[in-house]
Each structure stands twice: as C-alpha cells, then as structure tokens.
Amino acid sequence: NRYPVLADQFSPTQRLESNRTLYRDTAASVGFNPDEAPIPTLRHVYVGETMAKAREEAAAGLLWYYRSLAQVGSPGGKANAPVPENYSFYRVFGEDGFNPDKDPDGFLNFLFDECTIVGDAAYCRERVSELRERIGLEHLICWQNFGGLAHEQTMSSQKRLIEEVAPAFA
C-alpha cells in the first residue's frame, strides 16, 4: 500500500535491520521505490555529562515508561495473555521472562545496548553513526522527555544533543 513506517522505540537494532530489509525488499517487489518513503526511527535519547551520569539519570524514567507500557499497552505484560503473531516481539517484555520488575538491571542493560541512545555525547554520536551504518538511518525522532525526567535534565540533555551530537551529522 506504499505506506511509510515508523521504527519503534523498543526494537533492538537487529530487529530494525531485518524489518527495514523486509520493508525495502517488499516495496521493491511490488514496483514501489522504498526511497520515496522515509523510515524514521524513534529512540529514547538522553545525552548526559558522563556515561555513568546519563544512565543513572535516565534509568528511573525508562523503567517507569516500560512498566507503564507493560501494564496498559503491552499484550506481553498481562499474565498468560495470548500475544498475536504480529506482536510477537512483545513477548520479550513478559512471556519470555524479560521483565523490568524481575531484573531491572538486566532490562536496563538491554535498553541501553539495543533500544536507546543514552550516554555521554561521544557515545551518542557513536550510536547514531552505528544506526546510520547498520540500518541506513535517515530520520531520528528523539524522545527526550520520558518517564518523569526533571525539566532541567531534559533541557540539559537537549542542549548537549544540539551542541555536541547533532553537528556531527549536519
């Protein structure tokens, strides 16, 4: 149907890679030039003063968000709820035992490694570069005010993103 798609905030990089390939191949197979429909990617982004501080400051907000998602929006978050095939990835948040309440540190490490851009400016530049290389990232939607972050934290992160990360991609 030639619909553009949005790459969601909780897909690991490998899933983004495979889904983007599937989209491009499918589009081409029906005579649609996939370059005509950009694929923006949504990521929680927090640019901190240091790696440790960034992750410490973002952790509570990310856990809050994913706990809330599991309660109200994720089929995988409801005990024994069946998960439709097209939502099979949601199983990672519940049915497969990947739960922010059972293993918050493991859950956060997964998010930091695969689903977010959280760190100091140098690390954030590296993550954006990696996404550009691995998935052909064209448009990045930065979700910066998540899970009750303090206004000052969000503004500081945005300032660092604008001044220290974005110029590398101009």
Could you explain how this protein is built, in words?
This protein has 170 residues and is mainly alpha-helical. It has 5 helices and 3 strands. The chain has a 3-stranded parallel beta sheet with strand order 2-1-3, sandwiched between helices. Helix 4 packs across helix 5.
Silhouette: globular
Mean pLDDT across every amino acid position:
86
Query: What class, by secondary structure content?
Result: mainly alpha
Q: Major sheet: order of its strands?
A: 2-1-3
- The portion of residues assigned to helices is 40-55%
Share in β-strands: 5-15%
Record field, number of beta strands: 3
Rounded to the nearest angstrom, the radius of gyration is: 17 Å
What is the overall number of helices? 5
Q: Stretches where pLDDT falls below 50 for ≥5 residues?
A: none
Main sheet attributes: strand count, strand direction, barrel closure: 3 strands, parallel
What is the rounded distance between the termini?
Answer: 32 Å
- N-to-C SSE string, H for helix and E for strand: HEHHEHEH
Question: Which labels suit this protein?
Answer:
3 strands, single chain, 170 residues, three-stranded parallel beta sheet, 10% strand, globular, mainly alpha
